[in-house]
Amino acid sequence: MRRGRALALAGAVAGAAGAAAALVAATRRDGVRADQLRRTATMARMGARTGTSYVSMRARSALADEERRKELADEFQLRSAEQVAEMLGGMKGALMKLGQMASYLDQGLPEPVREALAELQQNAPPMAPELVEQVVRAELGGAPEQVFAEWDPVPLAAASIGQVHRAVTWDGAAVAVKVQYPGVDRAVAADLENTDLLFNVMGLLFPGMDPGPIVAELRERLVEELDYRIEAAHQRIFVDHYRGHPYIHVPAVFDELSTARVLTTELVQGAPFSEVVGWPDEERQLAAECLYRFAFGGIYQLHAFNGDPHPGNYLFHPGGRITFLDFGLCKRFTPDEVRDFEDMIRAMVLDRDIPRFRRVIERIGLLSPDLVVSDDELVEYFGHFYEFVMEPSVVEITPEWSSDSVRRFFDLSGPHAEIMKAANLPPSMVIVQRINMGLFALFGDLRARANWRAIAEEIWPFADGPPSTPMGERIAEWERDRAQA
What we know:
The strands form four sheets. Strands 1, 2, 3, 4 and 6 form a five-stranded antiparallel sheet that branches. Mean pLDDT is 76; it is low at 1-33, 35-60, 76-93 and 103-110. The protein has 22 helices and twelve strands. By secondary structure, the chain is α+β, with helices and mostly antiparallel strands.
């Protein structure tokens, strides 16, 4: 985000205030439930405060020199971002999820804004112990101190839907207990019905981008994520597949202590992503390789994808080992859907047959056959997403490359606007695009560097490449042992 776009943050908030105020009046007339009114009014107050601060900042800057104007602008960005982060964290639900997404999706956000929003990744405001007890008692039949032998009332982490507590079972197992916020289902429903408000918040967080794709994805994600029984079922699939894996670890689910609103899993300690970016280069590269193998290995080997590449969902260990958390949004692929991905890779990467690539994406509905666009234009746009595996050579994924990936989804004012407006993501691809929006954003922070093509050929069943790294050698050994067991 350039400085002009950064200052547009204030204008977006002020605009959201006016729109939200109008929406409040409309909801009063139409009798929309109190949750929606309250949350909309909160946004209106936030917009009004930020708009006033912006006017004050501009007035103070009028007679200042260039250096002082920059100082005032930076102070305003930080103050506004902190206020927005505090508001979204307190509101929970869909609006807080938007703030979390913004903190790691856009490499171009000013650093003060990203740092403030990043607080939502792991340090969101927790709920009162009394509310936690209320949910646990209703779901598991007793207070936390009765259900568990030990219970830490201070949450280990708090997020948009629920918060996690450390506990010990009566059998002596250390566990992480995720408890859903009471009433969050109503809050999410109010946010998702309030489409105008969501679009205004998206304008605040991503100025200049079309908010429609994110809002649509957010709807699908949050509705499914509210039922922890679905998450438990997803997690068991990954637990079974990766049991004993030398690098990928998924915590076991305690079925007898899990319900629709409480999820109990194995407790694991590890380093957060914010710490890993400061690790030595060798450790960062091992972490990136493991993340890559987990994401793409799930698609092509397990036919399942954990669709939330959020930095708070990983616990890192030395030597490239990672514990993967939060399986609230998983996509299961049919064999035909996986073959579609394979056909695209064969045409674009292995055979460089662009006319065939065009036929594939037209067949699956990614692009309309009526769109008149040259093969060169197709390669310029879609080729970007395959660029890092085009050649069997070492490629570094930079923050700039990651930002370009995000812009190709949301910035309709750029050189690829015609293709972007005509493109239509099929249902099987909506969740997978979170790799481009989220996972590669993390790779940019890690300065991930590898021969991604060689690693990919290990993962692609149609390539069946040999191990290309020490990590690949150990995984191949594990796979041989598992096959013989």
